């Protein structure tokens, strides 16, 4: 099956839906897409930041929702299609991060981050995939994290939820590509945002959100499965993923 024409349309500015757009990478990417000529539907729980973004760029249209509420995602997808047109690009970027050292072990925190970071992605896919599969084209980006490559000390709920997103994308990629839909995973390193402001340690290769958005924009025309940045940090973490456990734990012992 030749999907080259459909794949080409996915990078021609049309309608994009960005879930998790109120701050950080999501906000910066929304503005970058709008500047590139896309009509961008922006979604998040909080209405005020979305409205403030719309005042800055007329190509941004707010559709507030909660990713833990599957119905709100379906309703937003239908409204966007009706009001803006068919969605060619969907970026599922909503996520949360809460550090958890061992002494603060809390199953409720695991459930919370799983509901937002992983099941929120599942809910988003359930809303957008039927629309894209029906016309045989579309592109979906799932924002995971380099922290999903291997479990990191003091962030068990976060690392586990992001590893689940990576595995989800890997599992669905080939089946969707055969039917004209390109599913990709975005794995950022440390990007300055309200989430990383919670960290009390030095973050290597810390990026600004605008630089992260430009890294995604540069890779958008390509069909590679993964978009990871910054490159040096991604390569370093991938190398750690290849190490045997005894050596990996020895190298990361200082972070525990």
UniProtKB/TrEMBL annotation:
<dbReference type="InterPro" id="IPR036291">
    <property type="entry name" value="NAD(P)-bd_dom_sf"/>
</dbReference>
<dbReference type="Pfam" id="PF00106">
    <property type="entry name" value="adh_short"/>
</dbReference>
<dbReference type="GO" id="GO:0016020">
    <property type="term" value="C:membrane"/>
</dbReference>
<keyword id="KW-0560">Oxidoreductase</keyword>
<dbReference type="InterPro" id="IPR020904">
    <property type="entry name" value="Sc_DH/Rdtase_CS"/>
</dbReference>
<comment type="similarity">
    <text>Belongs to the short-chain dehydrogenases/reductases (SDR) family.</text>
</comment>
<protein>
    <submittedName>
        <fullName>SDR family NAD(P)-dependent oxidoreductase</fullName>
    </submittedName>
</protein>
<dbReference type="InterPro" id="IPR002347">
    <property type="entry name" value="SDR_fam"/>
</dbReference>
<dbReference type="GO" id="GO:0016491">
    <property type="term" value="F:oxidoreductase activity"/>
</dbReference>
